[in-house]
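Long-time lurker. I teach an intro course on protein structure, and each term I like to show students one example going from raw sequence to a predicted 3D structure in token notation. This year I'd like something fresh instead of my usual example. Would anyone be willing to generate the tokens for the chain below so I can use it in lecture? Attribution to the forum is fine with me.
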Amino acid sequence: MLVARGLTPIAGAFLFALGGLYDGPEGAKVAATIRAVKRPDQGWALMTDDVEKRRRRAVFRACHRGTSEMDWLVGRFAEARLAEMSLEALTAFERLLLVPDPNLYDMIMHPEAAPAGEHQPLVVELRAFHGLE
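-- Reply from a regular --
Happy to contribute to a lecture. Here you go:
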């Protein structure tokens, strides 16, 4: 049984395995497995990882805006389109995510009343994605 100083096996298993605080041979096996996951320095691959991390973060932020309407409008668009976006388009989308929900909602739903300014290309693409054109 994997027990780490009075804690259940589930509580903090990852941290205790790294510290070698498990008792018994099972703990050594868990710690060895976790240590083997460390990635070597891969040079150019790290830049790709950073872009992928930015994409995942942008999708999460798009799906957790604060209002369910915006979660749905922006989140579904992000889930469908962010994987194929260029780095420049991703940066523009991240800037779009900084716009407060009421303003962004007005830009998407009422473009004639609230012009999108620098976000116009993304707002047009977002409206077309949802069939609002």
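Some talking points for your students: Residues 7-18, 34-38, 42-46 have pLDDT under 50 and may be disordered. Residues 44-129 form a domain with the DNA polymerase; domain 1 fold (CATH 1.10.150.250).
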